[in-house]
Specification:
The protein is built from nine helices and 13 strands. A hairpin with a 3-residue loop joins strand 12 and strand 13. It has a five-stranded mixed β-sheet with strand order 1-7-6-4-5, sandwiched between helices. It is α/β, with parallel strands linked by helices. The radius of gyration is 19 Å and the shape is globular. This is 3-oxoacyl-ACP synthase. It comes from Proteinivorax hydrogeniformans. InterPro entries: ACP_syn_III_C (IPR013747), ACP_syn_III_N (IPR013751), Thiolase-like (IPR016039).
């Protein structure tokens, strides 16, 4: 059997609390109606942190434990943990992957954090695969992390409607060298540095530290720094880059694009989701629109895959593409062939 890396399984942690479309509309103070939040933004409800245990690192750890439970993998067999969880976490300058390593009992692993905003899971899976193929000492890896950037959203900011969907949760995916099934094939990633500071949290870094005067504003300061430029630049390059990532991932995988059977895609507005599905020649049944989950950042692709498996949308022989985009700006796609690996 040709050397490969396969997906053993996934794990999720989703908080118990939800914010409804009605509550989102109320938070906008009249800018958006409940109907518009549902129909245009595509949000029925979204999970939000429920308690003190719903920190970014802790949610990642809970998802990691669930992945181990779902797959039966011994944590002592994990050689590498790549944390794709967000930088907004319980304690700055702590390494989330190392914390999760301890919590899941992966005593033999080493851990590292990577960051590419909402593209991080797809990028981390590529990194994990490439490392496993190159390093004889790495046979089993976990890509894992949590997300709760929605804490920073100011619902009265007119330019921020694209981020009203930000939710909370954790996800994990376990990869194994020469697993014999569910092969992660090739990936393609693009980044555009002209958009590197088009969006972000304005206060709390070295440029604009939090002070007693700005503390209240700082707590809700995720915003677009260059809204007009960002809109114009994304209109110019975003869909083109996304399609290029998909085309390149399939070409490098040696798989025809028309074999795509399931699209694991992040949550964005409903009209764009339909456009993407139609553009790729798929039906709505070949993807899952995350209207009851919102946008859990880079957890979305893991969430979509697990939901698809549970609903029977992914079976042996299904070709999957995980696609993602992240502020900064990044675009990514991979190809996965579910089921036994051909000899």
């Amino acid at each position: 059997m040709e050397k490969h890396v396969g997906i053993v399984g996934t794990g999720l942690y989703i908080p118990e609390n939800f914010m409804t479309a009605k509550e989102i509309a109320e938070a906008t103070k009249g800018m958006w109606t409940e109907e518009a939040v549902k129909e245009k933004l595509g949000i029925n409800k979204k999970p939000i942190p429920a308690n003190e245990g719903d920190g970014t690192q802790e949610m990642g750890a809970k998802a990691g434990k669930k992945a181990l439970e779902n797959t039966g993998v011994d944590p002592m067999d994990i050689d590498l943990i790549i944390c794709m969880g967000e930088e907004w976490k319980e304690y700055p300058l702590t390494t989330s992957g190392i914390y999760i390593q301890e919590q899941v009992g992966a005593k033999n692993a080493w851990a590292i954090d990577v960051q590419q905003r909402c593209c991080t899971t797809v990028a981390a899976m590529k990194i994990a695969k490439d490392m496993m193929m190159a390093d004889d000492d790495i046979n089993t890896a976990m890509v894992v992390g949590g997300y709760r950037n929605g804490d920073f959203v100011d619902y009265t900011d007119k330019s921020m409607s694209m981020m009203f969907n930000l939710s909370a949760g954790g996800g994990a995916i376990i990869l194994k060298k020469n697993y014999g099934k569910n092969a992660l094939l090739s990936s393609h990633i693009m980044t555009d540095g002209s958009l590197a500071r088009s969006a972000g949290v304005e206060y709390g870094g070295t440029e604009k530290p939090i002070t007693s005067e700005n503390a209240e504003e700082a707590s809700k300061s995720l915003r677009l720094f260059q809204p007009q430029f960002m809109k114009e630049r994304l209109n110019e390059v975003s869909m083109k880059n996304w399609i290029n990532c998909i085309d390149q991932a399939f070409a490098k995988s040696g798989v025809k694009k028309d074999e795509l059977g399931y699209l694991a895609v992040l949550h964005f507005k409903q009209s764009m989701h339909k456009y993407m599905v139609d553009l790729l020649g798929l039906t709505e049944e070949q993807s899952i629109y995350l209207s009851d989950y919102g946008h859990m950042g880079q957890v979305d692709q893991i969430l979509s895959l697990e939901l698809a498996l549970n609903e029977g949308k992914v079976k042996d022989g299904t070709v999957i593409s995980m696609i993602a985009a992240g502020i900064g700006y990044a675009w990514a796609a991979n190809v996965i062939k579910w089921g036994p690996v051909d000899n």
